[in-house]
């Protein structure tokens, strides 16, 4: 996770975005597409409830987040709004261009973080099955 913060020295929010998305995926088991489709209105930063829309099979669901995840999401939202006070998009997670973070942007940032950490880069998708296995133990 620490390597994620060093992904871009030109745009510090980029590293914060990558770290926050990866942390959200790891702590909730969300699919990467679900996290990237989150809009600002889908996050209740008071109660820690996420509204997941257009999930697999076009279903919606509600996901509660752990208190530490909620703290990280609040910090990200504060830093995002400080860096980009005028939103160009309704997306919760944004790129350095102030638009919704794309899946290719997430995968590229994840690969960069892995390289900085001295790890082989793998797709973000394996996080979800790993969380499901850990939860079932």
Q: For the residues shown, what is the average pLDDT?
A: 83
Which strand-content bin applies to the residues?
Answer: 5-15%
- The helix-strand sequence is HHEEEHHH
**How many whole angstroms does the radius of gyration measure?**
14 Å
Can you count the helices? 5
Structural class, judged by helices and strands? mainly alpha
Order of adjacent strands in the largest pleated sheet: 1-2-3
Total DSSP E strands: 3
* Poorly predicted ranges: 130-137
Helix fraction, binned, reads 40-55%
Which keywords apply here?
single chain; 137 residues; mainly alpha; three-stranded antiparallel sheet; 3 strands; 7% strand; disordered C terminus
Give an account of the 3D structure.
A 3-stranded antiparallel β-sheet has the order 1-2-3, with no helix packed on it. It has 5 helices and 3 strands. It is mostly helical and 137 residues long. The chain starts with 11 loop residues before the first helix and ends with a helix.
């Amino acid at each position: 996770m620490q390597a994620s913060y060093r992904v871009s020295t030109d745009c510090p929010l980029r590293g914060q975005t990558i770290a926050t998305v990866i942390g959200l995926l790891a702590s909730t088991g969300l699919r990467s597409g679900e996290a990237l489709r989150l809009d600002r209105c889908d996050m209740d930063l008071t109660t820690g409830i996420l509204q997941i829309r257009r999930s697999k099979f076009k279903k919606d669901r509600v996901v509660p987040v752990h208190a530490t995840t909620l703290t990280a999401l609040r910090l990200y939202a504060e830093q995002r709004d400080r860096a980009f006070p005028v939103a160009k998009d309704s997306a919760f997670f944004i790129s350095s261009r102030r638009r919704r973070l794309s899946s290719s942007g997430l995968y590229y940032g994840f690969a960069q973080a892995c390289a900085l950490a001295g790890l082989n880069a793998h797709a973000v998708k394996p996080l979800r099955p790993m969380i499901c296995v850990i939860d079932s133990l």
